Amino acid sequence: MHRVAVLAVPPVKPFDLAMPATLLGAAEVAGRPGYEVTVCTAEPGVLDASGGIEVVVRQGLDAVADADTVIVPSTASRHDAGPAALAALREAADAGKRVASICSGAFVLAQAGLLDGRVATTHWALADELQRAFPAVRVDADRIFADEGRIVTGAGSAAGIDLCLYLIGCDYGAATANAAARAAVVTPVRHGGQAQFVRTPLPAETNSSLDAARTWAMGRLDQPISLAELAARAQVSVRTLTRRFTAETGVTPFQWLLQQRLLRARELLETTDLTVDQVADRSGLGSGESLRQHLARHLGTTPIAYRNAFTQRPGAHPARSRGGALG
Q1: What residues does 69 pair with on adjacent strands?
Q2: pTM score, whole prediction
């Protein structure tokens, strides 16, 4: 079981503080929990929190030393985090543990010196402040999360959901991450490069014709889909489709289609014995070579290596579940 320490640096935001346990707690592998999540802080007890809520944290920094991953959620201590918490983060990073942040938690990682020379993100409204305060950090506000190897930073609060699902995908594969998203009733995994700031947010309820077009596309990812076809399904022009699609999702129609096809390919690699060419065909990526190129570019791996890492089907034939002669 993967051990996660959620390091609370007061004042905290209860929503962000509870998020890792909620999302990671929904991840199951072979019917068992994939994570053991412990919330900890430098000085256990009642912590200051937003919204007039009292938060009680009973675990100290020993949980950081015992963890495989440390997550720092949002905090109002953007420039004055306590020295004990910063020291614990440095020790965790030096020990090779994965360290992540949600929203303004990136400021704590920056105070610990963990973001120097790295690309990092935070809530778009805080990006300039982060860059001014820590010029050695390469701040990129145009993404939901940024993965720099053992250091991962997430954007605003809701993007913490995407970050947690991404971590699940890294640890246990796309199928487990999507299952966790369904269990938590949240949007499936979004690509980290997706824009975090959509200038024209949708209302709470919408009858957008693009919803129907996206649903139609999801049902035929294995077939060619043109912009003209998507536009016809949405009953708009190609130009309007592109403009509205980007406004609603933060990515272009082609980028969205590629994300969905890669996700479908990952799930097929994890949950079936299909050959690489068959996976590519059923996910709409064309050839096995095309699938290899996309996985190498986006995940830094090969189809067989991905299958080896994330095949978890009980009773699967060892040779075939490990790739065998599937090439």
Answers
A1: 4, 98
A2: 0.68
